[in-house]
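Chain A, query sequence.
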Amino acid sequence: MATRPTDTLPTQRQELLARLAANPRYDLAVVGGGATGLGVALDAASRGLRVVLVEAQDFAKGTSSRSTKLVHGGVRYLAQGNISLVREALRERTTVLHSAPHIAQPLAFVMPCYRWWETPFYGLGLTLYDQLAGKAGLGKTELLSSAQTQQLLPTAQNQGLRGGVKYWDGQFDDARLALAIGRTAAQHGALLINYCRAEQLLYQAGQVAGLECTDTHTGTRYLIESRCVINATGVWVDALRERDGAANSVGRNAPVKPMVAPSQGVHLVVDREFLNSDVALMVPKTSDGRVLFAVPWLGKVILGTTDTPSKDLALEPTPLKEEADFILGESARYLSKAPTRADVKSVWVGLRPLVKHHEDDGATQKLSREHTVIVSRSGLVTVTGGKWTTYRVMAEDVVSACLERGLVTTMPSARIAEMTLVGAWTQNQSGDPTTLREGQGMHSYGAERALVASLPGADRWIAPQLSEAMVRFAARYEYATNVEDVLARRSRMLFLDARLAATVASQVAEILAQEVESSADLAEFLNLCAHFLHVP
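Chain A, predicted structure.
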């Protein structure tokens, strides 16, 4: 279905499922609705391929909504000497900021320095960071005096402060960017369906020829014929790979080796007063060698993150006590007013799909942040690893692998590097560059603000920065089917203030009941709020 790039498409679930039933044949079937899978759908659809994407939960339910909210080249990877990854990520940082200026914006970072050598040492490293960015740089690195550092970071620990270094990177709303990527793919004809679980692969003459999936709302099963199937399920890619291996194990005894060694990153959210700044605080080397961020985001401050090996592949991983202790303890070293467990508004855990090298000793810091694309003997294409900032490169590499293997025919070159996403401002419009730091108001809708404002309830506010019209927009145009979809990922309230999210949940449920048949009850969401409030 060809559409104009400016179309705002309705997302009524029954119509999407009717399309799936009526047209089961596709060039490309993507399993997984995170950043990578959505990026693949956009890349392929923009080239003219017939694309379907199924996601067992909601789009960006997993890792893709649980990042540190940074669009960055990776200062820590520069310290590790991974110049190629940093250069690639810096280039892609520009792509993200250009494609969605209402969702991704530049952000200044300050490293407070407490030893005489830190300011010149980190200043030199970050000057190299600027040089690697070249014309894609967002601002020049500056060496700061202690007074200048205190001015930018008024709540930083000032005892022993010798100066600081200011540099630039980007920040974004990860869940809303994922949604914008998916909706843009839909504008180019892709069919996206959330809450549709891939059950098994289909084969023809020993080659993957499609998949069977189930609508988790109704239990209805659908068969999808596809020339190519993409396994883009993040930390869960090994599950589908194992099914593929079992289906093609005749004459082979070697099991499928796991690709992923999951690592979990914990984030704590506190009130803005603990940082009281529009710049982020960055500690390049904490007591155990990790990086610590205090990032102003949507009116709150994100503290994190950890990097802990994990075997827990639950959709809602549990933070460990030692992880919370680490973040709070390190924050106390660098902030004059130390946050406590009682100050935490929300805590969330994201699982990183680190590519596993079997000779490694299990330390997650040694595992690859770069992505990997492999094609099995039966033609299943699996992609994992990488980072949010480089989602476009990952998508392009996946489609290129399909082309090289002959799974899809010759097609135009990738176009998404120059593309703007749904809601991006035009040259005749302007956005507020401070909104990502100050709060999630109407700014996150960009050029679609007028459409949101035209819906019923535009002047009725459920909570600060969430109106009745925004809930209706989520249901009509953003694939939302339940309270969690709205309060966790269309709005980010659950991630910012889980107690407030619990308070307004019943009002959101009442509005949604007028728009869609909800897939989850209110009690389930309230239990989730309790999970986000629990700091071990």
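The first strand starts at residue 25 and ends at 31. The CA atoms of residues 288 and 357 lie 23 Å apart.
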